[in-house]
Amino acid sequence: MVAYKCKTCGGQIEINGTTGFECPYCGSKGYLSDEDFKGNEEFRKRLLQFYRAEALKKENDYSKDISWFCRGQDSYTLAGGDPLMIDYMLKTEHDGYVCYLARESVIYVFDRAEDAKTFLAGVRRLSFPPADDKLHRTVPELKMELGLESGAYALVFRRYPNFYPAEYFRPWASEQLAWVISRMENICCLLKYSGIQHGNITPGSIWVNPVTHEGALFGDWRRVQSASGVLDLSAVRDTAIALAENTRDPKELYDFLNSIPEPDAFLDFEKWDKVIEKGFGGHKFVKMTI
Fold this sequence. Notes:
By secondary structure, the protein is α+β, with helices and mostly antiparallel strands. It has helices spanning about 35, 40-60, 115-125, 175-195, 230-245, 250-255, 265-280, and strands at about 15, 20, 30, 70-75, 85-90, 90-95, 95-100, 105-110, 140-145, 155-160, 165, 195, 205-210, 215, 225. The strands form five sheets. Strands 6-7-8-10-9 form a five-stranded antiparallel β-sheet.
């Protein structure tokens, strides 16, 4: 491998894991240009692999999830007689199931196995554009299925670090609510692409990561149907209003939230993008205090 020297002190610089280099002797930081990589394509390839691995490591670093803490524990008995212990931060009861926010999982325990199968069938109706490899993080990713002794059935989904229901952080200031709406609109485009409607977009079913500004849609996937009308897009507006601290500022936000959705999710997203440009001065990453 080629050794690169620090321009400040002459020491050999090292990869620092944040898409750059750092000198271990004087602390100087720097980046390599395309010109620097000429003649070293193998090094460039390995460097990109390193960066991807580092990014993946950060995405799964639960030690940085400082908001999570255990509030309770529930126990179940598996069909084979072994215990199932769930340490959870949040527990919500719904029609036919209980949902737990555990440290590394989102766990649904259904009263009936049939409902669990219907839920999974709804999730599996999703289709993903081949060019986008991050959309899988916006919907439930199954880790395992567990039959329980009582006849109930558990579905265990992946929970990435720092993902929580949006209602956990309400009320939302407009500048933060803007990116939540963007994530919801983006998910609606995925639903449109898949030819389905979710039917349960609410403040509790939209999960967000306040650190990275990502979003995910949980809720009740038993309600999934073939796409018809603007039910989900209307629910995005209702959800945003329920989460908002102030829907009247900027005016463009108020007008959007009180407008009739466009007949197509992609057109509605374009409409929202104009709100971002005119009402919020363009796309900006405003760090959220949690």
